[in-house]
Amino acid sequence: MNKNINKLDEVFDKCRIFITVGICGAGKTYYSKIIMNENPNLNIQIIYLDDIIDLKMDNHVIEKYVEILLNNNHNVIIDSVVSLEDRKKWINISKSFGVDIGCLYFDTSIDICFKRNYKRYPRIEKDAIRAMKKEFIIPTIEEGFNVIYDVNNNVIID
User: Fold this and answer.
1) CATH code that applies to domain 3-157
2) Which of 106, 150, 131, 112 is nearest to 11 (CA)?
3) What is the pTM of this model?
């Protein structure tokens, strides 16, 4: 088992909603699936925002779905929230539900992201990944997170 997963019980004790934060190819979706599959005791459901964007679902539908999951005792991972604006939106949503929110932060090198991107479909242009990395803002507790788990460095910030 990945050594980083050893701290998950501690992290998930603190929050009910988590968002994954990192640039394309950082490992957000892959790691989220591992968390869900190897930790059935955590009762996790993943919401893949990339799929929802493709389906052109309304934000209110997504929020209602999250609310239903929380009411049915699920922990929720919102996969792939990159921008500061989107992070603020999910922090506010979690507050409106009266639950704490955490961040699973992926500090992955751009070279690894390029390699992973080469294996995915559809691929993202390298210039787009470079631009994401350049504009990326590292998440902080001050944004409103109750906990941040730096996945790559196996560090909990609270």
Assistant:
1) 3.40.50.300
2) 150
3) 0.86
